[in-house]
Amino acid sequence: MEALRPGDPRQIGPYRLESRLGSGGMGRVFLGVSPGGRRVAVKVIEAAHAEDPRYRRRFAREIESARMVGGFHTAQVVDADPDAPEPWLATAYIPGPSLRRVVAERGPLDRDDLRALAAGLAEGLAAIHAHGLVHRDLKPENVIMAADGPRIIDFGVARAADATSLTSHGVVVGTYAFMAPEQVLAGPAGPPADVFSLGCLLAFAATGKGPFDAESIPAIVHRVLNDAPEVDGVPEPLRALIPVCLAKDPAARPTVGQVLAHLTDPDAGALPKPSLAALLTTPADAAVPVAEEGATQPAATMVATRAYVPPPPFAPSPPVPSLPRPVDVRRRGLLIGGGAVVAAAALGIPAALLLGGGDGEGDTKKAKTDNRTPRLASFTAPSGTLSGHTQGVRSIAFSPDGRYLVSGSDDSTVMIWDVAGRRSVQTLRGHTSSVLGVAFSPDGRTVASSALDGTVRLWDAGTGSPKHTLRTDQFGVSGLAYSPDGRFLAGCNPDIRIWDAASGRKLRTLTGSGNAGVDDVAFSPNGRTVAAVTDGFYKKAPGSSVLLYDPATGRRTGTLAGHKDSVRALAFHPDGRTLVSAGNEGIVRIWDYPAGRTTATITVGGGVIHGLAFTPDGRRLVVGNTDRTVRLFDLATRAPAGTLTGPASAIESVKVSPDGSLIAAGSGSGSTSDTNVYLWKAR
């Protein structure tokens, strides 16, 4: 306990507040006294959170959940006012420290105390699950070590077992070190998720550390998704119990009834024997819940479980012959030092994914979208990171030979990396605000960068010295792209601009975006088309569409309409006829762009899509999501082909190396975002 602070309330409802008991994600908890002198714990939701209807719904669920389970296993609800300006809940006060505090002050529990803790928690979870609820946030802070046994508290994230998922502002509810793999990736959170958390909590009580502890959140997430748990030092019977509770496959975990049976009679055979496959494999048929109304962020957005129906095949359109390049530009490597290849083996977890797509028939109006979202699986950890920026990475690009990568960050710098050596070889300084776009020229000699400061800067890639500074406007340029022959540089927002790549002279402005902002720009493989995608902020044409132009003349050659919300990213397929676009909907549209029609769609899920790229052979589509994953799809079948994990912030940009061996992603925007560039082996 601690004394009340300035600004803390002195009275909530009929309860006089005496001291602070703690604080959490939604509010503060106080020790209060009723008019009759009974002690209560009063939880008060902060006014800022109370203004959000979702938080009020969450708080109301907490009250309902705690009342359903009762006071034997939880703190009994005695009073509440969920409609108050600062909603509050009063429960019976249970004297006793949290499990976190007990372990911190006294060290790990002995064998008898561990067994009693495990049995008490399993009994409490059994009561919770018997009422059709899932706690979803079982951790040492939420277990009170009362004199009559452990009590499970804080039902702030409890849900009905078959209810829709809870969302929050870009955060997966729960604490990563005690969350099941399906929760970490915003997947299902049924009773098996509580069993996984129970296993983590018991390992913590037995050893003083979690079975997946690491030095950073990304490292913890990686271990939860990929590694077997560490249970050294855990005594029997928990040593046999905990690894089974921590199986990656929810179906391989015991029920709490089996846990209780094992604790009562360890030789009764109530538990399955743990195997490496159970510890490291996520199942193909795990259920996935539906996103609740009002969801705004991808990290906790779910989809309904439905039967898998294979999508019809998609074949990229026949290639269009490329026009001769007006200028013969030899592609040369950068004259910067090389380095030895450093690559750690990526860990993969094979599992199946579900996916729906369009039927590939008819024009844009007739194209159908299957709203099923694929489950995340086949998790692959990064093979390396490029670390040096101090804020989030907005944009990345490979050099033509794949030896180097350039990145632009919110820290106003542009960095050129030796990919094999995983080291920075140039830091380009000159911008005064967030760098939004970067690009390598086709000959590898020039790096272009754009920023919110209203400039596009051209740099000598070998020396880092500035070549030209191109003035734009107060909006800054969101995206940059070189034409394949190196003649043109295109930039976007709010209009599309074409510059002479050699001199930096502006050749033309391609109007037509109107009031719609432009987020990304790209050239077709033959250089005859430049495309840009627009947002839908003003709900006016041509918002939420793809605009096509002839870069040599500035003539509009087409508009691809069909998206219902802002479009953030696009990429041309190597076949010369196929283009993909995506954005806020979480849906990738596949276009036959010369014909102006949608041929298929992929409902990706995972929130807003900011990055799209193809592998050089055109067989796979790479999608960067704001749920912090990069997802791969087989383009011919539109079937999922893997999920790349590791970043701790939303993916802002994805690229594939020219030889197809590496996939790179820039993660996050803002001063508190992930500051790394992540690399994965693509083959």
Note poorly predicted spans.
Answer: 157-174, 282-373
Helix content: 10-25%
Q: Report the total helices.
A: 10
Number of domains: 3
Biggest sheet: strand arrangement: 1-2-3-4-6-5
Shape annotation: elongated
Q: Write down how many β-strands occur, each being a DSSP E stretch of 2 or more residues.
A: 40
Rg for CA atoms: 27 Å
Average pLDDT confidence is 77
- In angstroms, what separates the terminal alpha carbons? 55 Å
> Regarding quaternary structure, how should these chains be classified?
single chain
Structural class: alpha+beta
**CATH homology superfamily name of the largest domain:** YVTN repeat-like/Quinoprotein amine dehydrogenase
Quick one: biggest sheet? 6 strands, antiparallel
Approximate strand percentage: 25-35%
CATH class of the largest domain reads Mainly Beta
CATH topology of the largest domain: Methylamine Dehydrogenase, Chain H
Describe the structure.
This protein is of the alpha+beta class. Helices cover 15% and strands 30% of the residues. The longest helix has 20 residues, at 111-130.
What is the secondary structure topology, with strand pairs?
Elements: E1 11-12, E2 15-23, E3 27-33, E4 39-45, H1 47-50, H2 53-69, E5 77-81, E6 88-92, H3 99-106, H4 111-130, E7 133-134, E8 143-146, E9 149-152, E10 159-160, H5 181-184, H6 191-207, H7 217-226, H8 238-245, H9 256-264, H10 276-280, E11 348-349, E12 379-380, E13 384-386, E14 393-398, E15 404-409, E16 414-418, E17 423-428, E18 435-440, E19 446-451, E20 455-460, E21 466-471, E22 479-482, E23 488-492, E24 496-500, E25 506-510, E26 518-523, E27 530-534, E28 545-549, E29 556-561, E30 567-572, E31 578-583, E32 587-592, E33 597-603, E34 609-614, E35 620-625, E36 630-634, E37 640-644, E38 651-656, E39 662-667, E40 677-681
Parallel strand pairs: 12-37
Antiparallel strand pairs: 1-2, 2-3, 3-4, 4-6, 5-6, 7-10, 8-9, 11-12, 13-40, 14-15, 15-16, 16-17, 18-19, 19-20, 20-21, 22-23, 23-24, 24-25, 26-27, 27-28, 28-29, 30-31, 31-32, 32-33, 34-35, 35-36, 36-37, 38-39, 39-40
Helix pairs in contact: 4-6, 4-9, 6-8
